[in-house]
DNA sequence: ACTTAGTTTAATAGAGTTATTAAATTGGGT
DNA sequence: ACCCAATTTAATAACTCTATTAAACTAAGT
């Protein structure tokens, strides 16, 4: 038995790159095969359907984001520190995976079924719920203590996510428009990270 | 001469709806024809290529955004008022055209050529440049007067755009996840608008 | 040497895509 | 009544895409 061909993994690697770069629709199994260095039929031999192959990559990237949120700031009871940690690590993770935000949002928006699957995953995931409850408690207590202005937890969450995620969604446009090279992009991201933290912290004062 | 068929316009209307809803790739000229109530060949008779038809819609939606930014806050020299006006009218425009932000960003990100065309349009458009220069002057003067914290004009601009635009990009996910009906969505958007204004104004204080 | 399971390819069915062409239809102008 | 230009359709060329099938290949186990 000729086992454990390296092509199976090559296909997955090629698919990951192409799907992240161009999305589900704009990537054909022929493209994947060419990039992996095999016939198109082999892609289907190992993964049967394109959707199947895509699903694995999508789930993996989705988990990467979620798990990262969970592992950080577990028992932090200092809001400023929690926010700093969150934005900081979120920015760092996404800086190393810049296509992920647009990739996930695009595929979720453009596919009702994927959206339903995500929904199910979120509302049945005890970890996420617990995380949000703690987060909510922390904010409410800070408001009660008069340390920050009154604000709904969901609003604050969306503020933070908007500022972080949109940075990466708009990055291709920004770097193209201002002809930024890799080094300039890194500096830009660093600056944005600090501005986001500043805006949120200052914007929460009474 | 049988002139002025109503089908030419029906095709454009159908194309607009389908392109905005599903994007360029996921819309076929057959879909457009079916929705317009004519043969697929007629779509090509009037617009020759799918790209052509798309181009007109894309440009129109792009202009809608730009022109709207220009017409508002022309000679406002009160930063708080300028920001309030901007966020307010931006939110209102997008509330009536909710798919536009994602539509434009997706098609720009996924097509290098469109990105280049946008770039050319932006850097040769005297109106936009003038607008940005005035805006920059206003912010610098407010910083000099000590009314707000030091902040780069581009950073502030990106802060505002992030908060506004991401609201609409993530809206399909949000409304699906929390099963919002139309009325709840309107209330949500109203609340977001106020929160964005608050966050920006408070976040600019020293 | 030979079997056998896993790997890989060539070929192709079947559906869908854009775009073109030639023919048919329509209705106002003369 | 007829012309003629604009409109509309049917048919089809020339792709591309996913998925399957049958055949060929490879190497480990006996």
What keyword list fits this structure?
homodimer; 206 residues; mainly alpha; Tetracycline Repressor, domain 2; DNA-binding
Architecture overview:
The structure is a homodimer of 206-residue chains. Chain A contains eleven helices and no strands. Chain A folds into two domains: 1-48, Arc Repressor Mutant, subunit A (Orthogonal Bundle), CATH 1.10.10.60; 55-204, Orthogonal Bundle (Tetracycline Repressor, domain 2), CATH 1.10.357. The first copy, chain A, has 206 residues and is mainly alpha-helical. The longest helix of chain A is centred in the last third of the chain and has 23 residues, at 182-204. The first copy, chain A, has helices spanning 7-22, 29-36, 40-47, 50-71, 79-96, 100-109, 112-124, 126-144, 153-169, 171-177, 182-204. In chain A, 78% of the residues lie in helices and 0% in strands. Chain A binds chain B through residues 22-23, 25-26, 102, 105-106, 108-110, 115-116, 118-119, 122, 149, 151-152, 155, 158-159, 161-163, 165-167, 169-170, 172-173, 176-177, 191-192, 195-196, 198-200, 202-205, and chain B through 22-23, 25-26, 102, 105-106, 108-110, 115-116, 118-119, 122, 149, 151-152, 155, 158-159, 161-163, 165-167, 169-170, 172-173, 176-177, 191-192, 195-196, 198-200, 202-205. Chain A binds a DNA duplex (30 and 30 nucleotides) through helix 3.
Uncertain runs of chain A: none
Structural class of chain A: mainly alpha
| Oligomeric category | homodimer
- Report helical residue fraction of chain A: over 70%
**Chain pair forming the biggest interface:** A-B, 44 and 44 residues
The total of beta strands of chain A comes to 0
Question: Quick one: biggest sheet of chain A?
Answer: none
How many domains make up the coordinates of chain A? 2
The portion of residues forming beta strands of chain A comes to: under 5%
- Report the CATH topology name of the largest domain in chain A: Tetracycline Repressor, domain 2
- State Rg of chain A: 20 Å
CATH architecture of the largest domain in chain A: Orthogonal Bundle
The CATH class designation of the largest domain in chain A is: Mainly Alpha
Instruction: Write down the overall mean pLDDT of chain A.
Output: 93
Helix-strand topology string of chain A: HHHHHHHHHHH
Tally of separate helices of chain A: 11
Shape of chain A: globular
């Amino acid at each position: 038995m000729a086992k454990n061909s390296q092509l199976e993994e090559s296909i997955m690697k090629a698919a990951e790159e192409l799907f992240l770069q161009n999305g589900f629709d704009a990537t054909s199994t022929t493209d994947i095969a060419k990039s992996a260095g095999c016939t198109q039929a082999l892609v289907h031999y190992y993964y049967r359907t394109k959707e199947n192959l895509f699903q694995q990559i999508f789930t993996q990237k989705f988990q990467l984001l979620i798990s990262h949120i969970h592992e950080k700031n577990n028992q932090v009871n200092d809001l400023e520190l929690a926010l700093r940690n969150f934005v900081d690590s979120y920015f760092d993770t996404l800086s190393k995976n810049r296509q992920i935000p647009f990739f996930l949002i695009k595929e979720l928006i453009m596919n009702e079924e994927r959206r339903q699957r995500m929904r199910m995953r979120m509302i049945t995931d005890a970890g996420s719920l617990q995380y949000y409850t703690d987060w909510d408690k922390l904010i409410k207590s800070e408001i009660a203590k008069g340390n920050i202005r009154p604000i709904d937890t969901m609003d604050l969450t969306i503020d933070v996510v908007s500022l972080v995620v949109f940075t990466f969604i708009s990055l291709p446009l920004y770097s193209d428009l201002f002809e930024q090279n890799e080094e300039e992009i890194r500096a830009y991201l660093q600056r944005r990270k600090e501005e986001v933290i500043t805006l949120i912290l200052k914007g929460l004062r009474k």
